[in-house]
Amino acid sequence: TVTWAIGHLVELKEPEEYRPEWKKWDLATLPIIPGQFEYKVSKDKAKQFQTVKKLLKEADEIIIATDPAREGENIARLLILMAGCSKKRIKRFWTSSLTENAIRKGFAELKDGKETIHLFHEAQARQIADWLVGMNASRLYTLLLQQKGIRDVFSVGRVQTPVLKLIYDRQKEIEQFRPEPFYELEGQFTVKNGTYRG
């Protein structure tokens, strides 16, 4: 049986799903750090999740064939976890090529699921870091700027903010660029076989 995940069917819960007082943006509630992070099924993907869950429950063995990287591992493992099937035998199909030969080879050389579980742990660490920075820093900057009269919401992210700063810095360099004359020295060189300009 083959099924698909249509991206992330499972996501981290929102702050207010841990504690109702975390719904309101308030400096007094920061930082928001749940005692244990919990996941939920994405509302708009609940139907597909139920389909996948049913198939996982029926399976004797699970073969993960998502993208061969940590995010693919994360998508599959969270589905398996939320379906209550983590104790089942798991194999890993590992190829990024969709040619017939590569697919046949991938199925002939399935990895034991234990060989790739570290990718799931890496992805969870990244996902939780993104959540912590995003939820806390976005609220902090927004609330502090609102105290100065700026009525907007400011999204801060672990990756998006440094990248935005790099783009900003590059734009400033372009705007402040002033052409300057430069010179190249040329000389006439004499060698055994003659002369040349260099």
From TrEMBL:
Keywords (A to Z) from UniProt: Isomerase
Toprim domain span: 1-98
Residues in Topo IA-type catalytic domain copies: 116-198
InterPro entries: Topo_IA, Topo_IA_2, Topo_IA_cen, Topo_IA_cen_sub1, Topo_IA_cen_sub2, Topo_IA_core_domain, TOPRIM_dom, TOPRIM_TopoIII
Record keyword Isomerase present: yes
Superkingdom to which the source organism belongs: Bacteria
Keyword Isomerase: yes
GO molecular function: isomerase activity
Protein name: Omega-protein
Organism: Ureibacillus suwonensis
